[in-house]
Amino acid sequence: MLSPDKGGTTPLFKDIVPGLRGQLPGLRGKLAANAPMAPFSWFRTGGPAQVLFEPEDECDLSYFFSRLDPAISVLVLGAGSNVLIREGGIAGVVTRLGRAFQNLETDGLTLRAGAAVPDVKLASAAANAGIAGLAFFRGIPGTIGGALRMNAGAYGSETADVLVSCRGIDRSGRVREFQPADMGFSYRHCGVPGDVVFTGAGFRGSVGDPAKILAEMAAITRLRALTQPVNTRTGGSTFKNPPGRKAWELIDKAGCRGLRVGDAQVSELHCNFLINRGKASTADLEALGEMVRSRVFETSGVELEWEILRLGRVS
């Protein structure tokens, strides 16, 4: 980090973009130094990324990784729906996939989607094509890349149930293909090394009636609106469900519903959701989450595990 100067504060991180451009003369994507990350988080909090990289396409991403210094850390950020970005910012490179990774097509009962396709868009495409089994994606506020990375699921189904194959790029720039057996899926977990950036995937469903599938999706939408704080600054489910238990029930029994730290609050509608009431910092939200974990442990002996990803440095 850099120190303040007389005119205010200098950028949080040293600008390494000019050096990267010199090392990557063929790069076509965008590089930005000290790029604000709060706009990309659903909580709308957090510090900058040292470098934000938006590749032009898969080839551009492969080229970038093949020449990037292995000592520079890389993190991929999708919709930002399940992350807390700390005020100290994220050192290294944050990669965001744009329009080139939003392709979506159907082939019989199979759908192929880029990693930047929103989960809800995949669900809608499947419904319109009469492909059943993917309606649960309507209840997941993220992108396909994130769904692969955390085996996202809702309403009794998860990504592992419908995945046919996927592809990604590792830190050497190599394009890799993965079959379901390669993914190491478990509850909210994928075993593929974290430095692999998923770029797309194929999913398979079964024959269904479009009208019935759309009705199922509408029911999911109504249920979410009734039971989750969907129109607030939140990050989805905060903690994983312990084996055989429900996180929200443990939190409720610990007396944490409505608990606050500054403008950070445990949702009164669904107490496994944290919300930013307007001026909360990431530090407030994280402190509130740890307070919840402590109270749940004191009352039940269960140690809740964070489901939301906490990224970056503590300021």
SSE blueprint:
Layout: H1 17-23, E1 30-36, E2 48-54, H2 58-67, E3 74-76, E4 83-85, E5 90-95, E6 104-107, E7 110-114, H3 119-128, E8 131-132, H4 144-150, E9 153-154, E10 157-158, E11 163-169, E12 175-178, E13 197-204, E14 206-207, H5 210-227, E15 233-234, H6 247-253, E16 260-261, E17 264-266, E18 274-276, H7 282-300, E19 309-311
Parallel strand pairs: 2-5, 3-5, 4-19
Antiparallel strand pairs: 1-2, 6-7, 7-13, 8-14, 9-10, 11-12, 11-13, 15-18, 16-17, 17-18
Describe the structure.
The protein has 315 residues and is of the alpha+beta class. The chain is 25% helix and 24% strand. The protein has helices spanning 17-23, 58-67, 119-128, 144-150, 210-227, 247-253, 282-300, and strands at 30-36, 48-54, 74-76, 83-85, 90-95, 104-107, 110-114, 131-132, 153-154, 157-158, 163-169, 175-178, 197-204, 206-207, 233-234, 260-261, 264-266, 274-276, 309-311. The strands form 6 sheets. Strands 6-7-13-11-12 form a 5-stranded antiparallel sheet.
